[in-house]
Write a structure and sequence with these properties.
- The structure holds two protein chains of two kinds.
- Chain A is of the alpha/beta class.
- Chain A has a domain at 20-35 and 316-448: 3-Layer(aba) Sandwich (Rossmann fold), CATH 3.40.50.1980.
- Chain A contains 16 helices and 14 strands.
- In chain A, the strands form three sheets. In chain A, strands 1-12-11-13-14 form a five-stranded parallel β-sheet, with helices on both faces. In chain A, strands 4-3-5-6 form a four-stranded parallel β-sheet, with helices on both faces.
- The longest helix of chain A has 22 residues, at 427-448.
- Chain A is globular, with a radius of gyration of 23 Å.
- Chain B is α/β, with parallel strands linked by helices.
- Chain B folds into three domains: 1-57 and 336-434, Rossmann fold (3-Layer(aba) Sandwich), CATH 3.40.50; 63-182, Rossmann fold (3-Layer(aba) Sandwich); 210-314, Nitrogenase molybdenum iron protein domain (Rossmann fold, 3-Layer(aba) Sandwich).
- Chain B has helices at 63-71, 85-90, 115-120, 123-137, 148-152, 157-168, 184-196, 222-233, 247-251, 264-278, 290-303, 307-335, 347-359, 374-383, 396-405, 418-424, 441-457; strands spanning 36-38, 77-82, 109-110, 141-146, 172-176, 210-216, 236-242, 258-261, 282-284, 339-344, 363-369, 389-392, 410-413, 427-430.
- A six-stranded mixed β-sheet of chain B has the order 1-12-11-10-13-14, sandwiched between helices. A four-stranded parallel β-sheet of chain B has the order 3-2-4-5, sandwiched between helices. In chain B, strands 7-6-8-9 form a four-stranded parallel β-sheet, sandwiched between helices.
- In chain B, helix 7 runs parallel beside helix 10 (264-278) and helix 13 runs parallel beside helix 14 (374-383).
- The chains are: A alpha/beta, B alpha/beta.
- Chains A and B meet through strand 2, helix 2, strand 4, helix 3 and helix 4 of A and helix 1, helix 2, strand 3, helix 3 and helix 4 of B.
- Strand 2 of chain A pairs antiparallel with strand 3 (109-110) of chain B.
Chain lengths: 457, 465
């Protein structure tokens, strides 16, 4: 019996032996050089795009909305309409309530949304904008047409607190907190997958349906940010989790939540209570059991996820998925030598990187990452670590290019390739895709750099 | 007071007033009615130079963005963004502005302000961050950009810059660009003021017939094509602002005889400052399309009153045109009858695009820009065929409606317009800052025709029917 699962990192002959593949080291620089993180309102916008009929509104300067739109469009290659309250000097001094009202009115006129998701910015938070107050006043003033008013959701996402990942999770929490109602009858599952790709969301839905589990998945941007050709410009793309479903999250008997580092890596000075995830909040407020687990990347973590699905459904792993696992094990065996002992430099959102690192170990690849590092720090440390390839979003390309090693593009953002929304990362299927891509990247690298140009492996 | 804020229920479903049914008036927000018009001698002039309307989903960015994109190509300067992380992250390597030397501009530096800094002030952090970066990269100058909250939390960036200049001996320039202080266009002005602070710092001898090129950003190496043309004419190019820009050349810009200004929206103000202070005349040009490109060369020769230069320009133009005419004729034959929509950042560029499209048989049915001036829009009104929609500071709702209404085949725009075109089944030509093919100059005209042809003639459209 070969100990295939136990890749002993101490045998890898690496300068970072015994560190479990990662080191935590503060950059000696005060400045952030080529940031790995983005700002919180981007994460909020992504969540709002996952609510049916929702138009996001960023309460701040025009640039915030436009930059975030541009950033998301370059990744998803889909329309991303995000409104701005377009602060002026006047609103910065006297408050943004007038811009807020105009903004809401114009969104309603142009888009007729079911939901308006409002994210704050560094500017509106710093000048102390009372967004819940603005919402309250707006509703009061328009009480005569109350039934027609959209649902308002507000997330506090100043960019000086955490990153886009925190913005994402804070917005999931804020949405659940503001909409979910307590219920006694509990027959569903809530699944909070975090920042995964549209293809990943579609996979999860298929898996849950195959398990015959009734579920609410939130946020669901699998269609809004990866739509078919529509011939018309859908002002609000179809798809997304419905408000009704989010309201009825309280009828869940369990929550499955991917990721655990979020909201733990920093704390807000003024609001300690935000150091909680949506799953944790549902558990403490509604007594819904929370299965918090790493993103299911790799066989080990996917097995754990499947165990939970079996527990909550009482159903065995459906045959088609069992076979996907079987083929994945088969692929691992066939290609294990091409990855064993290779060193991967990882970066991205913390939960994503942690899950990727565990997967790397599972296949005998030594992962390396630095928590909270920017790209320039990673680049400098790469000289010591000497990675064989990079595994992360497209922004690390310049490091891969300089080192003349492959970059396997995963996660968000991927700005220099097509198909990011169709890319799988999670479950047996996602792991299979990742594994094939990593193996082939390494083989291609060797082939391209070979003087022979061989035709077989 | 409250009344004013109420939604006018009657506006919800009924067509809005104005424009007498022209130009998609039913989808226009009331406040935007005057920012849309149609071409034709008797049509009214449209409103522009206005702040974007809250909630309209404008395609514009902010003051910071305007200043950042203009200063970005100065490749031997340090660009440090003072604020929370977003502004720096979203502008990292954002333009395809090529450099023939240093690449410092392609790195993204931020003070990455945290909540603690917001409460206790970020000036000290700024000073330390700038100092360490200047020591590490030895730039020729440093630009320190103030984003939205910097003024609000009371950081004195000017003071920090003065201290840094004393400490390091290089020019350290405060770029006061809080996003809320106007629009992207105001950011251009801020950038011009910042560049102007460099001008006049050195006096290097240069030939008498020297020009500065203002407003070309060397996207996909476009500037280098122009330099070749001017070189052939015997014109010395002194400073290029800001494409492939260098601090020293910019510092010496006041010694040139003429400022040749493209993308006038961003650079006219710098030309004005240099005229007022150093008495340097300027001229407005465009390098897109055959007519405008040729005029850009002739006008410079005319300015220097140099017959030899003019002969060389004529020769160059003749050679280039005779070389490209067969290709253009080929494209024209195939593209005639196609209709195009244009929505770009600057309106002056849009004017060139209308002319360039005509050369290859394509009719423009919509022209819009984020930052056009009244003069630009007047020109467009006269230039375009009657009925062409003209729009300032548009948004996805309007643009998607207009292209349907005018049955456009091709959309020419930037990153944010691309999905609008594609979702409706329109061809798209990237005229944005990340383009990889030069579109300026004679060579650029051929590339432009090639791209229009590729997008108009692709067989994939049959699946959209």
């Amino acid at each position: 019996m070969i100990e295939g699962n136990k890749s002993d990192t101490t045998n890898f002959n690496s300068p970072f032996r015994g560190t479990g593949g990662s080191i935590v080291e503060k950059s000696s620089f005060v400045s952030t050089r080529n940031s790995c993180k983005l700002c919180a309102p981007l994460g909020a916008s992504l969540v709002f795009k996952g609510i049916e009929g929702c138009v996001p509104l960023i309460h701040g300067s025009q640039g915030c909305a436009t930059y975030i739109r541009r950033y998301m469009i370059s990744h998803y290659k889909e329309p991303v309409d995000i409104a701005s309250s377009n602060f002026s000097e006047e609103s910065t001094i006297y408050g943004g309530s007038r811009n807020f009202i105009t903004g809401i009115n114009n969104i309603i006129k142009q888009y007729k949304p079911k939901v308006i998701g409002i994210a704050s910015t560094c500017l509106s938070e710093t000048i102390g904008e009372d967004i819940p107050g603005h919402i309250h006043n707006y509703k009061e003033e328009n009480v005569n047409i109350g039934a027609k008013l959209p649902t308002f959701i507000h997330a506090s996402t100043p960019s000086y607190c955490g990153s886009h990942a925190e913005g994402f999770h804070n917005t999931v929490l804020a949405t659940v907190k503001s909409l979910a109602e307590f219920e006694n009858v509990r027959n569903k599952i809530t699944i909070l997958p975090g920042m995964v790709s549209p293809a990943d969301i579609r996979y999860l839905k298929e898996l849950l349906e195959d398990f015959d589990i009734k579920y609410t998945l939130f946020p669901d941007y699998s269609e809004t940010l990866d739509n078919e050709y529509t011939a018309e410009y859908q002002l609000i793309p179809t798809g997304g989790t419905t408000v009704h479903d989010i309201q009825r999250i309280g009828n869940s008997k369990a929550t499955i939540e991917f990721g655990s580092s979020f909201n733990k890596s920093f704390s807000r000075l003024k609001d300690k209570s935000s150091v909680q995830t949506a799953g944790e909040w549902l558990e403490s407020s509604f007594y819904i059991k929370n299965y918090q687990m790493p993103l299911p990347i790799g066989i080990n973590t996917t097995d754990k996820f499947i165990e939970v699905l079996k527990t909550v459904s009482g159903v065995e792993l459906p045959e088609s998925h069992r076979k996907e696992r079987g083929r994945l094990v088969d692929a691992y065996i066939d290609a294990h030598k091409y990855v064993f002992g290779k060193k991967a430099l990882l970066y991205g959102e913390e939960d994503f990187v942690t899950a990727m690192a565990d997967w790397c170990k599972e296949i005998g690849v030594e992962p390396f990452f630095i928590k909270g590092a920017d790209f320039e720090t990673l680049k400098e440390k790469a000289d010591e670590f000497q990675p064989d390839f990079l595994l992360g979003n497209s922004k690390g390309y310049y490091i891969a290019r300089e080192r003349k090693i492959p970059l396997v593009r995963v996660g968000f953002p991927i700005h220099d390739r097509f198909g990011a929304n169709r890319m799988h990362h999670i479950g047996y299927r996602g792991t299979q895709e990742l594994f094939d891509r990593v193996v082939n990247a390494l083989i291609e690298y060797k082939q391209e750099n070979s003087p022979i140009g061989y035709k077989y492996l | 007071m409250i009344e004013r804020h109420k939604i006018d229920e009657t506006n919800f479903n009924s067509p809005f007033r104005g424009l007498g049914g022209k130009a998609g008036s039913s989808i226009l927000l009331d406040e935007r009615q005057k920012q849309v018009s149609v071409a034709g001698a008797n049509e009214r002039t449209i409103d522009c130079n206005k702040a974007s309307l809250a909630g309209s989903v404008s395609q514009r960015a902010c003051v910071f963005c305007g200043s950042r994109v203009v200063l970005y190509p100065i490749s031997d300067a340090l660009h440090l963004i003072h604020g929370p992380i977003g502004c720096a992250a979203y502008t990292w390597d954002i333009r395809g502005s090529l450099s023939s030397g240093p690449e410092l501009h392609r790195l993204s530096f931020s003070t990455d302000l945290q909540e603690r800094d917001v409460i206790f002030g970020g000036e000290k952090k700024l000073f330390q961050a700038a100092l360490e970066l200047i020591n590490a990269h030895k730039p020729k100058a440093a630009f320190i950009y103030s984003t939205c909250i910097v003024g609000v939390i009371g950081d004195d960036v000017e003071r920090a810059c003065r201290m840094l200049e004393e400490e390091t001996g290089i020019p350290v320039i405060a770029v006061e660009a809080p996003g809320f202080q106007g629009s992207k266009k105001d950011g251009y002005k801020v950038a011009c003021e910042s560049i102007f602070k460099l001008v006049g710092r050195v006096n290097n001898p240069i030939p008498a017939k020297s020009i500065n090129i203002l407003g070309d950003f060397n996207l996909a190496g476009e500037l280098w094509i122009l330099l070749e043309y001017y070189k052939k004419m015997g014109v010395h190019v002194n400073a290029t602002i800001t494409g492939d820009g260098r601090v020293e050349a910019i510092s010496n810009a006041h010694n040139a005889a003429l400022n040749v200004v493209q993308c006038s929206g961003s650079m006219n103000y710098l030309a004005k400052l240099m005229k007022d202070t150093y008495n340097i005349p300027s001229m407005r040009v465009s390098y897109f399309g055959i007519e405008d490109m040729s005029d850009a060369l002739y006008d410079v020769a005319r300015f220097f009153k140099d017959d030899d230069m003019m002969d060389k320009a004529r020769e160059l133009v003749k050679e280039e045109i005779s070389r490209m005419m067969p290709a253009l004729a080929w494209y024209k034959e195939r593209l005639t009858g196609k209709k195009a929509a244009i929505y770009v950042g600057g309106a002056f560029k849009a004017i060139s695009l209308v002319k360039a499209l005509r050369l290859i048989g394509v009719q423009t049915v919509i022209v819009g820009s984020q930052t056009g001036t009244p003069e630009d829009y007047e020109l467009i009104k006269k230039l375009c065929d009657e009925g062409t929609i003209i729009v300032d500071d548009s948004n996805p709702v309007e643009l998607s409606h207009f292209v349907k209404e005018k049955q456009a085949d091709i959309f020419i725009g930037g990153v944010k317009e691309r999905p609008i075109a594609h979702k409706i089944g329109l061809g798209f030509c990237d005229h944005n800052h990340e383009r990889k093919e030069p579109l300026a100059g004679y060579e650029g005209m051929i590339n432009f025709a090639k791209e229009i042809y590729a997008t108009a003639m692709s067989p994939v459209w049959k699946f959209t029917k």
